[in-house]
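Sequence and structure are kept together here, with a separate record for every protein. An example record follows, reproduced without changes.
>
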Amino acid sequence: MAESTRLVDLVHSRIDEFINTRESIVTTISPDVTVLVEFSRQFLSGGKRFRAQFAHLGWQSVPVPAVGLQTPAGAGLSPTLPDGLAGLVSAAAALEIFHAAALVHDDIIDNSDTRRGAPSAHRRFEALHGAEGWAGSPADFGRASAILLGDLLLGWSDELLDEGLDDAPDRTSARRARAQFNLMRTEVTAGQYLDILEERAWLTQPEAELLDRAIRVIVFKSAKYSVQAPLVIGAALAGADDDHLDVLRAFGLPLGIAYQLRDDLLGVFGDAVVTGKPSGDDLREGKRTVLIALARERLDAAALGTVDRLLGRDDLTPEQIVTLQQIIVDSGAVDRVETLIQQNVAQALAALAGSSVAPGVVTALTDFAGTVTRRAF
C-alpha cells in the first residue's frame, strides 16, 4: 500500500511539473489561452490513478532485484530514482493524461454534465462563455473548446511519454513500450466508435448478436486500455520478454472486462456521491451495454417495448429511471453480470498461477482485482 501511495504521489508531481513547463509555452501565445492550462490542472487533479498503478505493477512484475520508491525528502525525480523508474513515472503520468483526454472527448460524445462530481470540461467552457457575456451559443463554444482541450491533452500525453522513454535505460524496451502505447491509442479510439455505433445501430442488428457486440465494445473501449495496456507498458519498460508480457495480457484482459462490467452496473444503479455522475446516467445516454443485452434476452414483449421506448432519452424522469432499473433487475441481468464479473476475475487470477510474475506483485494484483471490481453502488 505504501509503494502504491508513493507511486501515485510521484505521478501527481510529474504531471504538475510537466504542466508547469507547458504553461510557460502557452502564456507566450496569449493570456486568453491560459484557461486551457487552468482547466487541464483541474481535470487532472483527481481520479484513482488506476492506470498509473497498473503500469507500476507491470514494471515491478519483472523478476529483477527489488527496487523501492523511497527517495530523500525534497529530492527531484530523475537524479534520485533508481534506473528506469523515472521513465516509468513519466510513462505512468502520460497514461493518466491520455485518460483525461479520453474523458474530455467521451463527455462531449455522451453530452455528460459532470465528471468526478464536478462539471465536465465542455460545461466549464460553456459556463465561462456565459460569465463573460460573449457572442454566440455557449453550448457551441463549450463543445468546440473542450474538443481542443482534449486534443491538447492527447498531444501532451505523447510528449510526456517520449520524455519517459528517453529516461529508459534500454532502447529496445522503450520501443516496445511505445508500440504498446500506440496500439492502445488506436484500439481505444476504435472502441469508442463502436460504442457510438451500438447506441444507434442496435435497431438493425440481429438480436442474437447484441451481446457479442456489447462485449466487443468493452474489450476495445475499456478492458485493454484500462488494465492490460498499462500493465504491458510498464513491464516492457522493465525489459520483460514476450512470454512475460503474454501472462500480463492474459491477466489484464479479463480483469479489464470485469472492471468495465462493474462500471456498467454503476452507470445504471450507482449512487451519484460514489460515482460522481447522476444515477441512471447510462440509461439517459442509451448505452447498449452487456447489462442491457442480457436483460433483453429475457424480457417479454411489453417490457422490451418499454426499454426500447425509454432507453436513450435525455429527458428521463426519476420515475422512468426507476422503471428501467426494475425491469433490468427483474430480468435477472444484474445477477448474470455479477456472475460474469466473478468468472472474469477468476480467469485473470488463474493466468498468474505458476507464472514468471514476481510473487509480491501476484499478491498486489490479486488485491487490485478485488479493489477494481468490488466498488460499491
